[in-house]
Amino acid sequence: MARILEKQAVLLLIVQALYGVSNALSGTFLPIYLWKASQSYSVIGWFTLAQCVVGGLTFWLAGKWVKEYNKMNSLRAGIALSGLFYCAVLVLGDAARSWIVPLGMLSGLAGGLFWLAYNVVYFEITEPDTRDRFNGWAGLLGAAAGIVAPWTSGIVITSMQGVKGYRIIFSISLAIFTVSVVLSFFLKKRQANGAYNWKHGWLQLKEKGNPWRRMLPAIAAQGIREGVFMFLVGLTVYTATKDESKLGMYSLITSFVALISFWLVGRWLKKGGRKWAMLVGVIMLGVVILPLFNGVTYTTLLIFGVGTSLFMPLYIIPMTSRVFDLIGQSQQSATEREEFVVLREGGLTIGRLIGLAAYMFVLPFNHSEAAITWLMLAVGISPILGWWFISPFLASQRTKA
């Protein structure tokens, strides 16, 4: 029987939930805010590019701090800098478009510090028999934030003229970040252990037969899709409807479907079925994009969003679980958890940059419906490549089960 979560794990979940609510409130509409200020696909691309590059570098550089010193301060710094980011957006107002790269760098720094520390602390305060329960609650809280927060933001923004609604939502996010920082001080200081190896990732990839030589490109394939879809879907919904409340409703519907789907897949998917469940998932993530070729409308976007929410768990649950299983496969690899978390993020960063390069090559010059749809299809089928790379690990796991 799975053990109940300890108090520190519950507290970490609460901190992560507040962080998620703050980002869901404002993050969903941040690309829309920047779009309104600039009317430029290029500006949003440069913001996201700066965010990804600095976020990936932060993981690598801050790895020493997290491993050898105080990882809890990294967590708190990430939350505090996220609040500072939204404070800067509030102060700059329409002038934010002139500070797009520094703002992206600040957002990347904040996210890097928070998620690096979070992933390491999560690994430390959970055990194999409580990790699935923790991940289940984390997914549930994340989906709940996606249901309520963007819908609320959409109503507030559309009920007010100009950018007043955006300022109110950004201010609320800032307040929630503050509460999250305060609660983080009730998390115990984690003991530092060992010296940080700057070359760890390179040594893993250099070693012949090392499983990370296949795992890293699988993770990168995941990042290709993430790098574009994390902002383009919401932006496309807005440009198709010109209505923030429609985007909020879109997020509510798709997040509700995701909540149910993640719960069902997490409950019924067994290790022995991961390989073929993941194959079905990656194929269907490409298929659900096809309705957009009949026109990029709210209806076709909703079909795409609901389909994605239904099939994403079949892909992302085996993917994430297998990566962390690999990190914890031995006592030696567990002691190198910080370095492996950094390596995982490196793969995601490489993938995101590839996806963003495709975006920057296409949409700033041609943002027709056809161009958007073909771009979404091109990056949206990248998980199939990821399945090909990771399938030997899933197959070997299946035979052992």
Describe the model.
The chain is mostly helical and 401 residues long. The chain is 81% helix and 0% strand. The chain has 16 helices and no strands. It has helices at residues 7-27, 30-38, 41-68, 71-92, 100-125, 128-158, 164-184, 200-206, 212-241, 244-268, 274-287, 298-327, 331-335, 337-362, 369-380, 382-400. Helix 3 runs antiparallel to helix 14. The protein is globular, with a radius of gyration of 20 Å.
What features would you highlight for this structure?
mainly alpha; 0% strand
Secondary-structure map:
Elements: H1 7-27, H2 30-38, H3 41-68, H4 71-92, H5 100-125, H6 128-158, H7 164-184, H8 200-206, H9 212-241, H10 244-268, H11 274-287, H12 298-327, H13 331-335, H14 337-362, H15 369-380, H16 382-400
Helix pairs in contact: 1-5, 1-6, 1-7, 3-4, 3-5, 3-14, 4-5, 4-7, 5-14, 6-7, 6-10, 9-10, 9-12, 9-14, 9-15, 9-16, 10-12, 11-12, 11-16, 12-16, 14-15
Compact overview of the structure:
By secondary structure, the chain is an all-alpha fold. It has 16 helices and no strands. α1 packs antiparallel against α5, α1 packs parallel to α6 and α4 runs antiparallel to α7.
Strand content: under 5%
The share of residues in helices is over 70%
Whole-angstrom Rg: 20 Å
Low-confidence stretches: 397-401
Annotation, overall tally of beta strands: 0
Write down the oligomeric state. Answer: single chain
Distance between the termini: 18 Å
Number of helix segments? 16
Largest sheet: none
Structural class: mainly alpha
> Please, what is the average pLDDT?
86
Helix and strand succession? HHHHHHHHHHHHHHHH
